[in-house]
User: What shape does this take?
Amino acid sequence: GIMSGTSLDGVDVALIDIDDDGFDTVGFHSTPYPAPLRAALLAVSNCDTHTREISRLNFVLPELYAEAFFDTCKKFKIDPGSVQLIGCHGQTIYHESEAVEFLGRKVASTLQIGDGSVLAKRTQIPVINDFRPADMAVGGKGAPLVPFVDYLLFKSAEAGRVALNIGGIANVTILPAGCS
Assistant: This one.
């Protein structure tokens, strides 16, 4: 999995081995964004900008994602060819989960950049992306997305649990014992 969150601090790569019995984290590494890239992302995030800047960043980010992926594989001595799938959220630059009037319609919208096709080509691995738009297309708010994964990973018949996701925006998932 490759993640760059709203904190704009960099790219996180998690190498995960998944099988019928669950999952194991094989390796995790963070690569900080270079200061000029962070500034460029801030310059297009929820503000007036030029589409050319957004387009350029959309193609620069997957290059950095691929580099971070290969660096993480190297660090943990994992053959990149053994990785079967990459999930990559992309970088959110605008998110409006509540519908507003726009051109005579009520619309909620979100925009993540970091093109999945470029990442797939650079890594030669299939990429799943656009999680927020997919959630919104079926009536969700597009964020937060973490609670469902928290539920899948941490639910328990015997114990209540609380999961805290700290990032650019923090959220808490409360999982009572036996929750469904």
